[in-house]
Amino acid sequence: MKLKVTFAILFCAAFITQAQMKKWTLEECVNYAVENNLTIEQFELNLENVQIDEVDAWGNFIPNLTANTVASERSGLVTNPNTNIIEPGQIFSTSAGINSGITLFDGLRNIYQLQRAKLNAIATQYGLEDLKDDIRLNVAEAYLQVLSNKEALKVAQAQYQVTEQDLKRTKELVESGVLPRGDLLDIEATAATQEQQIVNGEAQVLIAKVNLAQLLQITDYQNFDVADESYEVPPSEIMATSPETIFAKALTFRNDIKLSEANIDIANKDLQIAKGARYPTLNAFFNYNTFYTNQFRTIPDGMGGFIPFRADFIDQLWLNDGISYGFQLNVPIFNGFSTENSIKRSKIDVKRAELQLEQTKLELENTIQQAHVNVATFGKAYEAAQKTLDARKLAYDYAKERYEAGLLNSFDFGQAQARVDNAEASVIRSKYDYIFRLKILEFFYGVPLSLE
């Protein structure tokens, strides 16, 4: 039994450790953010409300049905419901009824309301998907920032290891009298600076991971991490596509464009609803009512006289019941310009929605043009940074040979190494900046976010 308990504990511990050591890929981060983001969850509640509005619109086509009942007792001067004579006394009575009504015609406003509710549901869905697109891009940027900082930290750690080797070798040369002690102090200062860079790099990695975790609504920052991979610039043919072509395709699937188009349709429906108020409204109704009272009524006794009589409760409900039904026509004549002003406002809203669509298209076109320029710019910056790094490394190798031969002092050698460090950091920054801009442009062309 103890062995089984121990095995279970070890299994659970191993499972927890494995869960804690999970390394998130970009796709996993994007999918998790879309499923768990609080802003998205709030927007989904708005979508549920809109869907309820559609059910309300359907309800306008169904007859309403209400039931009512009243029980009362009066004393003093009262009206006998059996004789309609006012007389002193005490009356207990109860009444009940069923009422139903339906709108037969209201200028087609019920139909337009239903169509509007359906359009609003579609527009809200587009808005939700547009929000998801924004979150996907934010997660991708935060994810790449983590990778960039982690790679920069690895470079700093590798540089520090090289400096440690130089420090060890310099100590031996100083102790043997080949190099002055000042050279050792310079190398020690370089090592201390690199240690500080490592500390700062670790902090930058932690901050980037916290930022990404917050986008994913994850609070266990210490056990959150992304996959330890160094990504190279992925192959892409997107730059062979012109910005005009990318823009034309984006117009066919971008949710912000579809949202603006749906808002125009909604505004036009609002205009039709407003115009419907000009037309007469025709309603049909049906009512059934009955009552009971404790008062007596007089009935013929068969001999030329009358005798008091009171039927029991059930019999009175049948005897006193009645129905009414019919139609009601309301014709609008004048309501203080309310209908006409509502129509004018709706026309303005249609124009505003049309202008918003054009504005959205202009912003999208400008964003794509800028994204295309950014890819070209950051691509050239990345190539230039690589060339600079190659040159700095050659200069460093030459400086190292001269330093080891005693032809270069430690300060100048440290400067050569610092230039390599800066060049490597520049390559890392420009590489991930280029990758992100490349993914943005591909995203506008309909390519899913991926580092493959």
Automatic annotation (TrEMBL):
Residues 1-19 form the signal peptide. The keyword Signal applies. One of its GO terms (molecular function) is porin activity. The keyword Transmembrane applies. It holds the Pfam family OEP. It is found in: Cell outer membrane. InterPro entries: OMP_efflux, TolC-like. One of its GO terms (cellular component) is efflux pump complex. Residues 343-370 form a coiled coil. PANTHER family: OUTER MEMBRANE PROTEIN TOLC. Belongs to the outer membrane factor (OMF) (TC 1.B.17) family. This is RND efflux system, outer membrane lipoprotein CmeC. It comes from Croceitalea dokdonensis DOKDO 023.
